[in-house]
Amino acid sequence: MFGLGKEKELVGLDIGSSSIKAVVLKSKQKNGSVSYKVKKLGYELLPRDAIVEGTIIDASAVAETITLMFDENRIANKNVVISVSGNSVIIKKITLPKMDDQELTETIIWEARHNIPYPYEETNIDYSILRPARRSEDKNLDVLLVAAKKDKITNYLNVVEQSHRHSRAIEVDVFALYNITEINYHDIFWNNTLAIINLGANTINVIVVESGSPQLFRDLPLGGSLITENLSKDLNIGLDEAEKILKGLPVNNIQPAQFQPVLDLSTQTIIEEIRKTFSFYESGKNEETNIEMILLAGGLSKLKDLPQKFEKNLNIKTEILDPFRNITMDEKRFRDTFPEDMAAHFGVAAGLATREPDE
Hints:
alpha/beta; six-stranded mixed beta sheet; five-stranded mixed beta sheet
């Protein structure tokens, strides 16, 4: 969205709170359609507290991790597209009457000054005119207004430069997820109302898409770190041990009967917050529009039986989003290092990698 240059190929670089992911895709156009093939994948855990609540605290550690990941996975391309999310990023859908380009630009500036809870001078602003939902007869313009605090963007750009890579574009996490879902779930994407939920360490990104048109965006200040902290406090164990439990790994003298109630209560809290988000979306519709499917992404989506818990509590079909569902991958080359159950980690990075350099 915030384009900074043109290159032949861009590395989708997802700098998360607990890990960094990279995806390089090769695109091929044929008969008006685009297909993709995975060229490179990278994944590396970050030191604890290197990034806290979306703010880079230890820039050197993050830069070193990026460099290590590129080196270990032989990613030679230094041109990357990154993304941001969290409370420093505001996404608002606004409806405007049709107008010419100059008037629209002036109106967007006015809307930004009055709808963004940060000083206008401290934010980068962009907007996109949405395609209408197929069932919609509304003649107005639906506009997506995006604002990101300049210091947040600078924070991330600096750490990329420190790793001797070059940021050629900046996106927002939910747009990357939107793009990768369209590629991999084309029929469902265009013919249903679905929710894409990225369950990260500190933030949960939610996007509701109705017949291909994004309708609602939310970044919830919840995630895996909340569950880790709850496990640590309730079981009186260290955060490292709590993370092992969250990942389904055994921890000495800690039995399922001890940690399962904590996991259940924590996941219930997350589901209830998502239920509130869905209720807000549905209450704003003039006609009954129910969410028909949920796709879960992010590391936390691998929590045991989580899709089933979503289905039981929300009564909505739920699956784990596979960002490589319709993307060719050399199984022998990648699956030993990145087994299939790791695919959920790469949703944002894969979406970023689909960006054309000249967008």
